[in-house]
Design brief:
By secondary structure, the chain is an alpha+beta fold. Strand 8 and strand 9 form a beta hairpin. The longest helix is centred in the N-terminal third of the chain and has 22 residues. The termini are far apart. It contains six helices and 15 strands. The strands form three sheets. The chain has a six-stranded antiparallel barrel with strand order 1-2-3-6-5-4. A six-stranded antiparallel beta barrel has the order 7-8-9-12-11-10. Among the domains are: 78 residues, Trypsin-like serine proteases (Thrombin, subunit H, Beta Barrel); 46 residues, no CATH class.
């Protein structure tokens, strides 16, 4: 081997060794991922228009004072507070932008928190990729669980992640992280009567919202922006309310439920007439 060839070989080998560790270190251990992601994660304490209180989750991204969560978590809010793992508690003063159909929202904190932002992944992750969720299942805030991206499905006319991460009420709005610690989606809803069949809105949908829009405070949200009835956290877009169930005749109830199951994944509108009043319920059948 000539001297020039030997130098060229050594250069290629050195570059290979220099580059290889970077690729290998891209995937964080669960411990490192949690440490990296935790400062951006928050629990949301929500009080709705009826004075009822709920707990949801959210993540700081797209700005030092910009909060990403699912719209249904705050759609009926009259006050919202963000609580971080280090004990900081900040008021969420309103909504910057939202898309109720896709169940996505950008909220605004009362002040910015520098150096806490999570990074959004702008591309869809492949099926079978590892995924981690950090949130407040049943109010146990800042809990982490893991799973896989089980599938990518078209629901409500756009792609959503189906994930096997265990998700419970209180996880609505929880960020879903990849192995690099980037946000790939936000936990939105779960399939009833199933185990670990959960869905997350991809981060791309949040990236399309406009952070430059004027802030709308909770008392400024008009009635048209709010759902007919607030959905409990994580069991989003419930098929029917308890009041509706009680008014369905016994002989028609089983047929009604069967029809709902046959419409799984489709947008459904149910009109309920009761004591001379009509109520409209719009949801995605599960």
């Amino acid at each position: 081997m000539s001297a020039n060839s030997h130098r060229a070989f050594c250069l290629v080998l050195w570059l290979t060794l220099a580059i290889l560790p970077v690729g290998l270190s891209a995937a964080l251990t669960p411990e490192k991922l949690y440490q990296k992601a935790l400062p951006s994660v928050m629990s949301l304490e929500v009080e709705n228009q009826k004075g009822e209180r709920f707990v949801g989750s959210a993540v700081l991204a797209r700005g030092d004072d910009v909060v990403l969560t699912t719209w249904h978590v705050v759609a009926d809010a009259r006050s919202v507070w963000a609580v971080f793992a280090d004990g900081q508690r900040l008021k969420v003063i309103g909504c910057i932008d939202r898309d109720s159909w896709r169940d996505v929202a950008l909220l605004k904190l009362e002040r910015g928190l520098p150096h806490r932002q999570a990074t959004l992944c702008r591309e869809m992750e492949p099926i079978a990729s590892r995924a981690y969720v950090i949130g407040a299942p049943k109010g146990y805030d800042f809990s982490i669980s893991d799973g896989l991206i089980s599938q990518i499905r078209s629901v409500d006319g756009f792609s959503q992640y189906q994930v096997s991460c265990p998700i419970s009420p209180g996880n609505s709005g929880s960020p879903i992280f990849d192995q690099r610690g980037e946000v790939i989606g936000i936990a939105a809803w779960t399939k009833a009567d199933a185990q670990n069949v959960n869905f997350a809105i991809p981060a791309q949908e949040f990236a399309q919202l406009d952070v430059s829009k004027p802030l709308v405070t909770w008392d400024q949200l008009d009635a048209a922006a709010r759902p007919p009835s607030p959905a409990p956290l994580i069991q989003t877009r419930q098929p029917v309310s308890q009041a509706v169930v009680e008014k369905v005749p016994a002989e028609g109830y089983s047929a009604f439920i069967k029809r709902l199951r046959e419409s799984a994944g489709k947008r459904v509108e149910v009109i309920v007439q009761e004591e001379g009043q009509s109520n409209v319920y719009r949801f995605t059948a599960k």
